Amino acid sequence: MLATISVFAPPSSRVTLNDEDKQAEDPMGINHYYRRTGRAFFLLSIISGVSFVLFLLLYMVSDEGFTIDAMQGFLLLSVMTLGFLIAGFVKRHRAGQTYATPELIADEHDLHVVNRVVIAPVIHLLREYQVFALDGKRIAEVRDLARGWRRYAAYFLELIGIRMFFPKTLEVHNDKGAIYRLEKEAGIHEIYRLYSIEGTQLATYQMNVFNPFKTYALIYDASGNLIGENDGGISGQQFNIKDESDNTLIDMKYQGIPVEALELFSGINGDLVDLNHKRIPETLMPAFIIAPVIVKLHFRK
C-alpha cells in the first residue's frame, strides 16, 4: 500500500511540536544529525587551525621570509578555520532546537514505500549519507566500510581527488540493520554493483565518465539488461531517474527543501527526492531506490 502525506490538511491536523528533550535525544532524528555534523566542523576547524600554527612556526624559523604564496596560504587556512568554527556553532545551535514536523503515517518511515525524502551528506570526506523522512526521522544511512588505517587512507585519497580510481564498499542501513551493499570496482569507469545483504546481485550502475555533454548513469538489472538511467542533463543540478521507456520514476532536486518542513531541513545541504512507487516494478525496487545514492556518490562532488 502506498503511503501518502496530507500536505493540504489544516496545519493543526498535520503539524505537531515534539518535546525538545525527545527530539534532542533521538539517535535517529535530525537533531542528532546536526550534532554529528557540528562535531565534524569543529574537528575540521581544529585541523585547519593547527595547520596554520605549524606553517607559521616553520616560516618563522626559516630564512626564506614571508612570500606572497605563503601569505595566500596563511590567509586560506585562517579563513577555513574561522568558517569551519562558525559552521560548527551554527550546527550545534540547530541541534538544540525544537522543530515543528509534519505528522506522518508509519509507512513514511519505510525506504521502500516513502514518497518523499531528503538525502543529506555527513560532513567528512568518505561520502556517507543519511536519508530522512519529512518529520526528521532518519530512515536510512549509507556507510563506508573502510575502518582503521584504511579509513584515514580513504580521507587522503578523497582529498587529493583520486579515490574514484580505487575500490570502495558501502552498506545501506535502516533502523533494523544493513539491507544493501554497494561495491565499486577499481578503475576509471566507476562501476557500482548493488547486492542484497545476503550477497545476491540486484543491479549495476555504470557512470558517465567520458561524455562532456550529458550527466548520467546507466542502470542494469542482475542479468545485465538495461532497465533505466540516472539523467542529469547537461548541468546535473536536477536528476530524473527513468526506466527504459523514458518514464520518470524518481525526481531528485539538488539542494531542494520540502515546503512541508522548511525549518526542519533549512540547515541541511541535501537533495529533495520524490519517488513514484506506483510505476516501479517490485522486482526492480532496490535498483531504483538506491539510484539517488549513486547520484550523490558520483555526481555531487
Which descriptors would you attach to this protein?
14 strands; twelve-stranded antiparallel beta barrel; two-stranded antiparallel sheet; 301 residues; alpha+beta; single chain; 8 helices; globular; 27% strand; disordered N terminus
Structural account:
- With 301 residues, this protein is an alpha+beta fold.
- Helices cover 33% and strands 27% of the residues.
- It is built from 8 helices and 14 strands.
- Helix 3 packs antiparallel against helix 4 (68-95).
- It is globular and about 70 Å long.
- The two termini are 36 Å apart.
- The relative contact order is 0.13.
Low-confidence stretches: 1-19
Nearest-integer average pLDDT:
84
Q: What general outline do the C-alpha atoms trace?
A: globular
Strand content: 25-35%
Radius of gyration from the CA trace?
Answer: 21 Å
Q: How many individual helices? A: 8
Helix and strand arrangement:
Layout: H1 11-14, E1 15-17, H2 20-25, H3 30-61, H4 68-95, E2 100-102, E3 116-121, E4 129-132, E5 138-144, H5 149-159, E6 168-174, E7 177-184, E8 191-196, E9 201-207, E10 216-221, E11 226-231, E12 238-243, E13 248-253, H6 262-265, E14 271-275, H7 285-289, H8 291-299
Antiparallel strand pairs: 1-2, 3-4, 3-14, 4-5, 5-6, 6-7, 7-8, 8-9, 9-10, 10-11, 11-12, 12-13, 13-14
